[in-house]
């Protein structure tokens, strides 16, 4: 029977596993990472890994949730410097969030591979139902976090919340592709950036309507 870890050992090992998840999966992604890789880096056995997480997918989602909380704090600081007042100006601000703030944060934290849309899609397919719901809840928290900024700009949702969440996911994927666009060629990074701005403007114009600034949101989020 394996020995029980002391409480301080459990805290240390869990922190080491999170560090391993960030460093290894952040560079390789989830698919190319094995539990052996994670356990070895954390200094524990493969069997001990399962005493902390049921699989690498659960560890990846925990790392993503932690990254998300830190990114929300960065969003707060970013929007504190902005004052969008319309659909157009909110779209411009979101464009900067996706193509300036987000990629800078990704590079600073070294988790680019883990946030790749293909990796996110793989996680959604291979995670168990509970962890898939966790991914949806993470997106919901992001929308709830952004909602206060839409309200401050005088914008209220006029389509169902689930459609807004799905739209934000699609914008995230489009933004990742725009970030990776080549700088030279017929279709340059500048073309992708401009096209991405048009996508954001269209989505915000369809999903939100202008109301009084700082007004409360209608019940249900629909017109």
Short note summarizing the structure:
69% of the residues lie in helices and 3% in strands. With 223 residues, it is mostly helical.
The CATH architecture assignment turns out to be: Orthogonal Bundle
> Which oligomeric form is depicted?
single chain
**Number of β-strand runs:** 2
Low-pLDDT sequence parts: 215-223
Largest sheet: 2 strands, antiparallel
Structural class: mainly alpha
Strand order of the largest sheet: 1-2
Distance between the termini: 60 Å
By CATH, the topology is Tetracycline Repressor, domain 2
Q: What is the helix/strand order?
A: HHHHHHHEHHE
CATH class: Mainly Alpha
Contiguous helical run count: 9
Shape: globular
**Whole-number tally of structural domains:** 1
Per DSSP, what share of the residues sits in E-state strands of 2 or more residues? under 5%
* Estimated helix fraction: 55-70%
């Amino acid at each position: 029977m394996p020995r029980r870890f002391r409480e301080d050992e459990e805290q240390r090992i869990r922190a080491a596993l999170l560090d391993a998840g960030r460093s290894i999966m952040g560079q390789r992604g989830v698919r190319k990472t094995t539990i052996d890789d994670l356990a070895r880096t954390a200094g524990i056995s493969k069997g001990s890994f399962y005493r902390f997480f049921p699989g690498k997918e659960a560890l990846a989602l925990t790392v993503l949730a932690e990254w998300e909380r830190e990114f929300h704090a960065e969003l707060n600081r970013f929007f504190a410097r902005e004052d969008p007042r319309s659909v157009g100006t909110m779209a411009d601000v979101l464009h900067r969030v996706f193509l300036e703030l987000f990629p800078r944060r990704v590079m600073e934290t070294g988790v680019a591979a883990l946030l790749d849309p293909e990796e996110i899609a793989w996680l959604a397919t291979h995670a168990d139902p509970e962890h898939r719901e966790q991914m949806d809840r993470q997106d919901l928290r992001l929308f709830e976090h952004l909602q206060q900024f839409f309200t401050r700009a005088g914008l209220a949702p006029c389509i169902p919340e689930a459609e807004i969440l799905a739209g934000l996911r699609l914008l995230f994927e489009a933004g990742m592709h725009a970030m990776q666009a080549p700088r030279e060629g017929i279709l340059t990074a500048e073309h992708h950036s401009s096209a991405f701005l048009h996508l954001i403007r269209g989505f915000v114009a369809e999903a939100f309507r202008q109301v009084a600034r700082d007004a409360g949101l209608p019940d249900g989020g629909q017109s």
